[in-house]
């Protein structure tokens, strides 16, 4: 245990710091780090190097090479830089490399050197050139801040949603600031810069002078500044050799340290962890590394070669040509267990487990001591927590064995934390492997989340490992295996050395019907890579037509899209394709396409009936569909044309079409309608009133109501209206007029073809019983009872029913008998019934 703490360095009385090796770097660097632009992503991310040929003291002999390595030094990409001079490199939160050029253009590359996109920081930056740049991270995404040759700042807080902000001018600024950085306060990015002994804070509205509280006197310049990983704290290095540390808001001072070195450092970064005991700053010079905090002494390390610092959530990564190390504050659980002469419960439990493996009775003594103090649960939890913070698997196993040993003596210790830690450590050890090269700590892993870690493995094309992790952690398929397989398929379609048939078959064999996988997304990627035929083959495996059709349209395979839409049975989808085809093809080709698809043609006709009538007429003409063409002209005669001549002409065209369709009935009916329209116009001219667009029956009725009986009869003869229908029309019209005298004359004009019961019914409907009785006597025997009941003559109705000896009629009369008034009539019918039964 003493050897284990040999690399622990105390910083004050409350904290220890240790530096251990993550990897031995085997990368073959052709240049020193000092001659390169360097960018390393946080959370164990990749490293990008670009030899800087634009330095004035070292003229370029050849084009530089942009190289990307994993954190373990495994090459990921290498490409010859053919663009303009680069001022700064940086990684986005999505592990995209941002290369800021001198002209203000930012080029974005993927992890494997694939060009993604580019954007400009504005015309002002282009005109004044870029002096310096910073890539920073906020809760909104990754941002870029630019210092131009005019000593003005421009920034965008999120390169994914580019919105440029030109920061206010600093009064009297004639040269570049000695140092500057971005500070995020209240969810807004600010610029903090130093000009001589003065500090200025730039926000979107104003430039404010700020003063660090408690700063040692005599400062004439600030040489370096650093913001903590969480943007909560700020460190300033002055030309007097003092390092001031405080809150990023510059309202509170934490401490100040005199390092007795006035040379400006190469780098200065914060080194702290969540719930840190001692917040510290790491300062690097050419051959010296210093850790300072709120303590009179510092921790110093000798650097054997050029090194680069990468701030992390819970420490600092330090890499050079040969090694990659991690410097951090020793976590509390590890400190309590491994500190020399520690009597913490976790330390005793670890010793007890080791003695148990030696089959020594001391194991029982240590265990009893912990149990007597009632600290066994705490001891187990300490060992579990410490295991998470250890980098080496052997020490992890030792601590977890101790925790497992202690659990055996507890009745109700929940196993969740132990099981979860075992799972997390197995995942962490897998990604820390040299060939993977993602040296995440437990704290970083929890902050990053498993989903983001899987995304980063996918970005590195480590699909088998990502799938193994998903299966090991039993993640839902949609979030885990399915998603990764989809990414693998999207990568697979980019392999242009494999035939389309082989790629499609391999993808289908691997994916099958895996839930959550969209073949249309994979096909879209294939199409984006210029492999249209492969995209079509992949779409054959897509079960959802709604996903197939839009991509087929995008690929200009409209006829295939139409077939797929029809097969789906989704009319909205068919209409979408039809409208696309209509805009894409000329009119003739479009109609020919429809003729080959009867379902689509029928749906398009329905659409045209409501939206495009002229197109509908063209369709009927092309198909020689005279029947529908005739119907179309009839609708058109009523829909748009107001002049009678135009309407008659449209009807004539319809009649001709019906004759061509050999539909003589429709043709004759259309001709009759034309005659009726002309007659109605003549009636309007001669009699006034409105006759146009009335039906034939309504025209006759209107004439009768107007007293034009002879005209009505003539119209009936002209249009061969049957007598029965004419009598009904005249009867109804005269009753509505209450012209009872004319009605009586009409009834006597000749024998009624409809009988006289309708006269009774109409009169009663007009509440005229007197007139109704006149016609009741003329009703034939078979309807006599019904007529007498209508006029309320119950007694006579009963007599007629008895006389007819009709059971149905007698039952009908009985059903109309009510109360005492009709009692005698009811008795009479009952007696007649009884007599009939006796016979």
From TrEMBL:
This is Vacuolar protein sorting-associated protein 16 homolog. Residues 517-835 form the Vps16 C-terminal domain. InterPro entries: VPS16, Vps16_C, Vps16_C_sf, Vps16_N. It comes from Moschus moschiferus. Residues 349-376 form a coiled coil. GO terms for biological process: autophagosome maturation; endosomal transport; endosome to lysosome transport; intracellular protein transport; vacuole fusion, non-autophagic. It comes from the Eukaryota. Transmembrane segments: none annotated. Plays a role in vesicle-mediated protein trafficking to lysosomal compartments including the endocytic membrane transport and autophagic pathways. Believed to act as a core component of the putative HOPS and CORVET endosomal tethering complexes. Belongs to the VPS16 family. One of its GO terms (cellular component) is late endosome membrane.
């Amino acid at each position: 245990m003493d050897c284990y703490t040999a690399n622990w360095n105390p910083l004050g009385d409350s904290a220890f710091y240790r530096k251990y090796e993550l990897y031995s770097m085997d990368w073959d660097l052709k240049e020193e780090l000092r001659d390169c632009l360097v960018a390393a992503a946080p959370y164990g991310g990749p490293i990008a190097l670009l030899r800087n040929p634009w330095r004035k003291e070292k003229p370029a002999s050849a084009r530089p090479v942009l190289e990307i390595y994993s954190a373990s030094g495994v090459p990921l990409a290498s490409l010859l830089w053919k663009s303009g001079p680069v001022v700064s490199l940086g990684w986005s939160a999505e592990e995209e490399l941002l290369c800021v050029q001198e002209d203000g253009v930012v080029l974005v590359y993927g992890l494997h050197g694939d060009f993604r996109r580019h954007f400009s920081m504005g015309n002002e930056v282009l005109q004044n050139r870029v002096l310096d740049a910073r890539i920073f991270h906020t809760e909104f995404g990754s941002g870029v801040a630019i210092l131009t040759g005019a000593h003005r700042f421009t920034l965008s807080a999120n390169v994914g949603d580019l919105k440029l902000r030109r920061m206010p001018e600093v009064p009297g600024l004639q040269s570049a600031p000695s140092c500057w950085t971005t500070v995020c306060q209240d969810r807004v990015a600010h610029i903090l810069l130093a000009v001589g002994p003065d500090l200025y804070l730039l926000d979107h509205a104003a430039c404010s002078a700020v003063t660090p509280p408690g700063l040692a006197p005599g400062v004439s310049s600030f040489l370096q500044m650093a913001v903590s990983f969480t943007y909560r704290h700020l460190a300033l290095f002055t030309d007097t050799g003092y390092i001031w540390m405080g809150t990023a808001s510059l309202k509170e001072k934490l401490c100040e340290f005199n390092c007795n070195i006035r040379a400006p450092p190469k780098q200065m970064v914060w080194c702290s962890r969540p719930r840190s005991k001692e917040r510290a700053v790491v300062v690097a010079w050419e051959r010296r590394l210093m850790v300072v905090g709120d303590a009179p002494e510092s921790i110093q390390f000798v650097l054997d070669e050029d090194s680069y610092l990468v701030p992390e959530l819970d420490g600092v990564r330090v890499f050079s040509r040969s090694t990659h190390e991690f410097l951090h504050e020793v976590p509390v659980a590890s400190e309590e267990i491994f500190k020399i002469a520690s009597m913490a419960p976790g330390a005793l439990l670890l010793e007890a487990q080791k003695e148990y493996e030696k089959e020594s009775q001391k194991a029982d003594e240590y265990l009893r001591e912990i149990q007597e103090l009632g600290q066994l649960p705490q001891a187990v939890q300490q060992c579990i927590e410490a295991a998470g913070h250890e980098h080496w698997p052997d020490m992890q196993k030792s601590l977890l064995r101790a925790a497992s040993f202690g659990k055996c003596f507890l009745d109700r210790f929940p196993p969740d934390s132990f099981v979860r830690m075992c799972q997390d450590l197995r995942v962490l050890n897998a990604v820390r492997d040299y060939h993977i090269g993602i040296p995440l700590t437990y704290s970083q892993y929890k902050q990053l989340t498993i989903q983001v870690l899987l995304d980063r493995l996918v970005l590195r094309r480590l699909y088998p490992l990502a799938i193994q992790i998903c299966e090991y952690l039993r993640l839902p398929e949609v979030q885990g295996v399915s998603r990764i397989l989809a990414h693998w398929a999207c990568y697979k379609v980019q392999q242009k050395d494999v035939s389309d048939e082989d790629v499609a078959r391999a993808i289908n064999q691997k994916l099958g019907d895996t839930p959550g996988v969209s073949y249309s997304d994979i096909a879209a990627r294939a199409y984006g890579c210029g492999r249209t035929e492969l995209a079509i083959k992949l779409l054959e495996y897509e079960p959802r037509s709604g996903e197939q059709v839009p991509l087929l349209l995008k690929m200009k395979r409209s006829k295939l899209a139409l077939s797929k839409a029809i097969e789906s049975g989704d009319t909205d989808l068919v209409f979408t394709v039809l409208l696309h085809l209509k805009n894409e093809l000329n009119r003739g080709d479009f109609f020919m396409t429809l003729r080959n698809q009867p379902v689509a043609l029928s749906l398009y006709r329905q659409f045209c009936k409501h939206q495009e009538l002229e197109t509908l007429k063209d369709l009927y003409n092309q198909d020689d569909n005279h029947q529908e063409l005739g119907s179309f002209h009839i609708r058109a005669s009523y829909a748009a044309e107001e002049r009678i001549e135009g309407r008659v002409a449209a009807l004539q065209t319809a009649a001709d079409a019906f004759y061509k369709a050999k539909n003589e009935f429709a043709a004759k009916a259309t001709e009759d309608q034309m005659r009726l329209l002309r007659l109605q116009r003549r009636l309007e001219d001669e009699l006034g009133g409105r006759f146009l667009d009335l039906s034939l029956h309504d025209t006759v009725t209107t004439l009768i109501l107007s007293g034009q009986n002879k005209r009505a009869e003539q119209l009936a003869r002209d249009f061969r209206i049957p007598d029965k229908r004419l009598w009904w029309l005249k009867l109804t019209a005269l009753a509505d007029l209450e012209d009872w005298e004319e009605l009586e004359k009409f009834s006597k004009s000749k024998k009624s073809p409809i009988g006289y019961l309708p006269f009774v019914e109409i009169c009663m409907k007009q509440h005229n019983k007197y007139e109704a009785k006149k016609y009741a006597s003329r009703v034939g025997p078979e309807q006599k009872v019904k007529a007498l009941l209508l006029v309320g003559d119950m007694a006579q109705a009963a007599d007629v029913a008895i006389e007819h000896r009709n059971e149905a009629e007698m039952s009908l009369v009985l059903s109309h008998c009510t109360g005492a008034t009709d009692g005698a009539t009811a008795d009479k019918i009952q007696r007649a019934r009884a007599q009939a039964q006796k016979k």
